[in-house]
Amino acid sequence: DPKTALNMVRDKLLFSRTCGDLCHRPCELFSASGENASIPIKSLKKYASAIEENFRDFSLPIGRVKDSDPKNINVAIVGAGPAGLSAAYDLVREGYQVSVFEKESQAGGIIQLVIPDFRMDKKAFTYEIAQLEKMGVEFYFNTRLGKDIFVEDLQSDFDSVILATGLWQVKSLEIIEEHLPADKWTDCLSFLQDFNSGKLGHLKNHRILVIGGGNSAMDAARAAQRLHQGNKVFISCLEEFSEMPAFREEIRHAREDGVVIMDGTRIESCSFDKEINIGLQSVSENKAPGDMIFDYVVIAIGQCGNPDDYKGFEKYLGTDQRIEADLKTAATAMENIFVAGDLCDQNHMSLIGAIASGKRAAIGIRKVWEDYPHDYEALDVLLNLNQKSPNQVLSRDIEPDQSVAEYLEQFNIFASCAKCNHCIDNFGCPAMIKINGKIVIEEFLCTSCGLCIDVCPNDAIHWE
After folding, report:
1. For residues 143-158, b (16+ Cβ closer than 10 Å) or e, as one string?
2. Do 133 and 127 meet the contact criterion of CB atoms below 8 Å apart?
3. What is the pairing mode between strands 160-163 and 169-170?
4. How open is the CA angle 329-81-171, to the nearest 5 degrees?
5. Distance between CA atoms of 12 and 93, rounded to whole angstroms?
6. Residue 181: partners with Cβ closer than 8 Å, 6 or more residues away
7. Is 60 helix (H, G, I), strand (E, B) or coil?
8. What is the three-class DSSP state of 268?
9. Span 379-419, pLDDT tens digits
10. What is the pTM of this model?
């Protein structure tokens, strides 16, 4: 019963289809049988969200808002990423009045602007977010904390405030920034935003170096590899492979895309004379593998908060401009101010972690205004997700049972490349057909002319 399944998912979270695309599936680390096989929860969630008429039907959560008892409590949420939006979703369904303030011109945060388009269905994500307005959530865009709004004003104008602005400043790497021209390097967030906006067409037949071992580095490397078939992309990170902070699944995908990972290496020197000369040294063996020549560098060594956003409450900030919070309620030392997402001093580091932290903050507010007696029901899971190392908990390279996964894959009808049907409706190539809602290329009919690559508006067709 996929419709009932989808409604059960939406009882807990707004982003059913987006989690089906992006979740790193820590819940699949454990098998009911105790063997290596695991239940493909991510694939099941994706399957339940795949049937379009069910996905478009948000009548149940919207009806829950109408049936709720108005609390006459106004909550301000700063940041329209998955953490802030998840808190808004939980609170508005309980009768709270919710206003969301966002510095960008659209909602979605890093998921919308930075995650590469090839990893998810952005149109579906936008549709999920749009349901919040139908539920009564008010959005104020192009409104930045520390410039257009301030914490002390929010405290006086609203009953409670959730800060969920995320971490939008990439840590600097002086050895690169001081020795390269500005047009020869960038940070990973800017790079990925430009990739999604189609602004990197000039990076063709380039040797590109991505510095960093986290998930953002993997996304940047895969995006760079996909820019042009002639690109050669390398990753350099301080950590040995077993200690890399990126999820194992993301590392595997990067390698499958052709990215070369040079783990356990540090940048010892950098110079520029028509080409970029990078001196690499092994961290563990203390020997230089030699200089390497590159055309472009992307810095992805971690993110922190922007100090300009925190005027008036700098004293509450900890490491990397993050805010400390109560483990159970997400309450901060500031009166009636809660925190969610990456801005919280606990490292949530994932979509599902951001969603969970937003839900925890919503529970914290309910405890204040309703005498709500229960802790966030997944609190132990969230805290374990944060406290254990990513290699132990989040990144084990586990595949779901293949027979089940392969069966479910035939119902995966919402891939972004199957959304517009341009190649079938307008291009008309007989080699392109639809099977179970997905566009596929019949190899025996294909003449390898490559015209479909040129006409695809989603850049979803590539040479193998």
Report:
1. ebbbeebebeebbeeb
2. no
3. unpaired
4. 95
5. 11
6. 272
7. helix
8. strand
9. 888 888 755 444 433 333 444 455 655 666 655 544 555 55
10. 0.83
- CA-to-CA separations, 162 to 99, 147, 325, 459, in angstroms, rounded: 10, 17, 11, 38
Q: How far apart are CA 229 and CA 203, in angstroms?
A: 11
Q: What whole-number distance in Å separates Cα of residue 360 and Cα of residue 345?
A: 14
Distance CA 264, CA 85 (A): 38
Whole-angstrom distance, CA of residue 377 vs CA of residue 83: 17
> Rounded CA gap, 61 and 7, in Å?
8
- Of 103, 29, 20, 16, the closest CA to residue 55 belongs to 16
CA-CA distance, 29 to 93, in Å (whole number)?
A: 32
Residue 435 buriedness (CB in 10 A; 0-12 / 13-18 / 19+): exposed
Q: What is the DSSP string of 417-443?
A: GGSS-HIIIII--TTEEEETTEEEE-T
In tens, the pLDDT along 32-77 reads 444 545 677 888 888 888 888 899 999 999 999 999 999 999 999 9
Question: Three-class SS of residue 242?
Answer: helix
Tens digits of residue pLDDT in 345-368: 876 678 999 999 999 999 999 999
What 8-state DSSP symbol labels residue 69?
Answer: P
Indicate the SS3 state at residue 308: helix
Give residue for tokens 């919503």: 362
Q: Which of 235, 250, 213, 219 shows the shortest CA–CA distance to 397?
A: 250
Identify the H or E element spanning 111.
Answer: helix 109-113
Strand order, beta sheet including 185-187: 185-187, 296-299, 207-211, 232-237, 260-263
* Alpha-carbon Rg for the chain in angstroms: 23
Residue 78: name the closest of 133, 14, 153, 186 by CA.
153
Structure tokens that stand for 420 in this block: 């517009």
Phi then psi for residue 136, to 5 deg, are 110, 0
* Bridge-based pairing state of the strands 207-211 and 432-435: unpaired
The proportion of the chain whose per-residue pLDDT surpasses 90, expressed as a percent, equals 64
